Amino acid sequence: LAGVVPADAAAAAANARLEEAGLPLLRGVDGIAQWGFILNNTNARPGPLHISDKCVLHWPYKLVMGRQPYSAWQGALYPNCSTVASSGANTGPTFIDIAIFNSRITLDDNMTWMHDCGEGCLFDVSADPAEHNDLAGRPEHADRLARMQDTLRALNKDLFLPGRGHGTVDACMAFIDNGGYYGPFQDIHGWYSPRPTPTSKERLEDAALRAVLRGFDHEGEREGLEAAVQAGIRSAERLGLGLAMDSCAKKHRAGAALLPEPILV
Questions:
Q1: pLDDT tens-digit readout, 162-190
Q2: What pTM was estimated for this model as a whole?
């Protein structure tokens, strides 16, 4: 942004502490000034762009590896009435990042529009911006595919993956003490205002929530809750979309034909 110093002084100070503790260091900001390239209509990043641990872009080619949710092409207007029919048929889309007590709820691949690129899907995003044409199986692209796979693996070696410990109900108790927000955090220097004194009603609600969370702080109870959520996720998804898109649901109940959402992976 204009007038913003690109150097990250806070990260540099943190690195000094991390180095003293023998911990992985924060990497520098991977940014390139764009204005000159915009004026000249030239490529600001001729080298690879590390999008994620499963994706790298080396213009104009993009490599995607592994399992990818939401691998579908929607229409110009989305969501639409066909989305209700698609959800009613248990073919998604469903929010993928659902977890109970840090345990990820497993969803059917059809519900999350999952596609497995395996060792790589390769696209020319200049000629094929919507990524319909996978070039990975073409012999003329075999060398490029191998090079980009090696590039992504090399870039992934520098991912910042610090140990974050294990989930504990004590964090939930701190969440309640903090007024329903995650925290407290270190090195914030009075950034947050003190929590207002809770009312009698809020104290009762907090006490009830503590009791519930403590009650589920056992492996057997957590597994039972996870199973219940797993069993109920499909009906909850259908209910949510039906209520949110009542005009479409009314058409569906009236017998109007609704085409299922096209899923092209």
A1: 777 777 888 889 889 888 887 777 777 77
A2: 0.69
Please give the full DSSP string across the chain, using - where no structure is assigned. -TT---S-HHHHHHHHHHHHTTPPPPPPP-----HHHHHHT--S--S-EEEETTEEEETTEEEE-SEESS-----SS-S-HHHHHHHHTT-----S--EETTEEPP--HHHHT-EE-TT-EEEETTT-TT-----TT-GGGHHHHHHHHHHHHHHHTT----------HHHHHHHHHTTSSS---SS-TT-SPPPPPPPHHHHHHHHHHHHHHHHT-SHHHHHHHHHHHHHHHHHHHHHHHHHHTHHHHHHHHTT---PPPP---
Task: Take residue 44 and report the two structure tokens written for it.
Answer: 């600001």
Number of C-beta neighbours around residue 241 at 10 A: 21
What pLDDT digit, counting tens, does each position of 92-115 carry? 777 777 777 667 777 778 888 899
